[in-house]
Design goal:
- The structure is a single chain.
- This protein is α+β, with helices and mostly antiparallel strands.
- It has 2 helices and 4 strands; from the N terminus they run H-E-E-H-E-E.
- The strands form 2 sheets. A two-stranded antiparallel sheet has the order 1-4. A two-stranded antiparallel sheet has the order 2-3.
- The longest helix is centred in the first third of the chain and has 10 residues.
- It is flat, with a radius of gyration of 12 Å.
Length: 64
């Protein structure tokens, strides 16, 4: 899994621009355990140098 902005945040933001019925929601809304992995922009991200685990990215979206 990559943690590069081009392959993660930019892809999600592009999808959201083209699909207005979807909205990004904070991972914390699904589980409070994600608190330490939620970025200021509302994405899920683990970083090897911060969390001592593999890098991982996720986005939670809701269709309205």
């Amino acid at each position: 899994c990559t943690i590069s902005m081009e392959e993660n945040e930019e892809v999600v933001n592009g999808f959201l621009e083209e699909n207005k019925e979807f909205h990004l929601i904070s991972p914390i809304e699904t589980n409070q355990l994600f608190n330490k992995f939620t970025t200021k922009d509302g994405f899920f991200m683990s970083l090897p140098n911060v969390h001592n685990m593999d890098g991982f990215f996720g986005a939670v979206m809701r269709r309205e």
